[in-house]
Design goal:
Layout (H helix, E strand, L loop, with lengths): L1 E9 L3 H19 L2 E6 L4 H7 L5 H9 L2 E6 L15 H12 L3 E7 L12 H4 L3 E7 L9 E3 L4 E3 L5 H17 L3 E6 L5 H15 L5 E6 H10 L6 E4 L1 H15 L6 E5 L4 E5 L16 H13 L3 H16 L15 H13 L12 E4 L1
Parallel strand pairs: 1-2, 1-3, 2-13, 3-12, 5-10, 8-9, 8-10
Antiparallel strand pairs: 4-5, 4-11, 6-7, 11-12
Helix pairs in contact: 1-10, 1-12, 6-7, 8-9, 10-11, 11-12
């Protein structure tokens, strides 16, 4: 297979973790003979520094002409504490999602037996947890009309029925391949947008009666994710609630650095770890690359390369079981970001029956 991938390293630890993801792709390329053609692009603070914009039309065009997109992270503390700044790194990611129509974000949450003790939650609560958060990405309060004066401000949360239907149908299709259970998370006792969500999902549920649908308010959901996470299989929710719940759910696994994600549209897809840019760790070679690498695994699986995805997942499991992990997972002997990536590279290749010359099938172009 030949696959064109737009790679957006972004800010903070983004470039460091994507180096390890590309290392894993190189191992897959060597083992299976695939060719991954990489186009490197700027986004976020790095793009602002060079271009004055958090994303350029050139980057958007490259993303549109690629088969898929790999993203590192977006965000820089330089822009966080000054409310007067009009151009911010995160605007680049929001704009990219909007241009590509990436309306659905899927974030799998699963626990690893070896890491149960790392989580601050009781092991008996989180053993065998395996659920997926479906987060709407292109509407809601993040994209609504905004206004502020010196002493007052507002952010408008807007949804329409069509966008709710699109992501809900995607969730129902996925539920049919899993445990046939969906939980809608909303605030329908207070918010009109949540009432529209609940009404729309109920209409779809009537036509898909093989799927069990539960409804839960966001405040209760945030508590139940900690107290009884095994009750969930698919959590369906809006943009802001999904953003908050997925970060909270990372506590179950023991580290935000373990979580992959994929954002889907009708024609495009983008893969990224759930964690942010973690500027405190930038350049220190301590960031956890597994969320990014598992995002690569998701990418390959969704493009039909199931054996390749399986090998990556197996290598990740092996690294966790052997304690070859970064310091956020509190193992006895922490490894660096690059050491974890190198282990995974070797693990994927180690059972080859024949020696392949180390020609790099990953072609880079600026």
């Amino acid at each position: 297979m030949v696959m064109k991938i737009a790679v957006l390293p972004g800010d903070g630890i983004g470039p460091e973790i994507l180096v390890q993801s590309l290392k894993v792709l190189k191992a897959i390329s060597l083992k299976f003979g695939h060719k991954f053609i990489i186009s490197n692009c700027l986004i976020g603070a790095e793009s602002i520094k060079k271009n004055g914009l958090p994303i350029t039309q050139e980057t958007i065009n490259i993303c549109k002409s690629s088969d898929t997109i790999l993203l590192g992270a977006v965000g820089d503390p330089l822009y966080d504490n000054d409310p007067q700044i009009k151009i911010r790194p995160e605007q680049g990611l929001l704009e990219l999602r909007k241009h590509l129509g990436l309306y659905c974000n899927m974030r799998p949450i699963k626990t690893y037996k070896k890491l149960l003790k790392v989580s601050p939650i009781k092991q008996s609560f989180i053993k065998n947890v395996n659920f997926v958060i479906f987060r709407e990405l292109t509407s809601g309060i993040y994209f609504g009309k905004k206004w502020r004066s010196q002493d007052e401000a507002y952010d408008t949360c807007t949804y329409n029925k069509d966008i709710i239907k699109k992501i809900a149908i995607k969730a129902f299709e996925t539920a049919r391949q899993r445990k046939k259970k969906i939980t809608l998370v909303d605030k329908a006792n207070v918010l009109e947008t949540s009432r529209l969500w609940r009404e729309t999902v109920k209409e779809i549920a009537q036509k898909n009666q093989d799927i069990k649908v539960d409804y839960i308010f966001i405040d209760n959901a945030s508590m139940q994710i900690v107290l009884k996470p095994r009750q969930f299989d698919i959590l369906l929710t809006d943009n802001m609630f999904g953003d908050i719940l997925s970060d909270e759910a990372s506590v179950i696994t023991g580290s935000l650095g373990l979580l992959p994600s994929v954002s889907f549209g009708d024609h495009y897809s983008l893969y990224e770890p759930v964690h942010g840019s973690f500027p405190q760790a930038k350049g220190k070679n301590i960031a956890n690359p597994l969320g990014s690498i598992l995002s690569v695994s998701l990418m390959l699986e969704n493009f039909g390369l199931k054996k390749e995805s399986f090998l990556i997942n197996r290598a990740v499991n092996e690294s966790i079981n052997l304690g070859i992990t970064t310091q956020d997972l509190n193992t006895k002997k922490s490894c660096t970001t690059s050491e974890v990536g190198e282990f995974l590279f070797t693990s994927i290749l180690k059972k080859r029956k024949r020696i392949i010359k180390k020609n790099d099938n990953i072609k880079s172009k600026k």
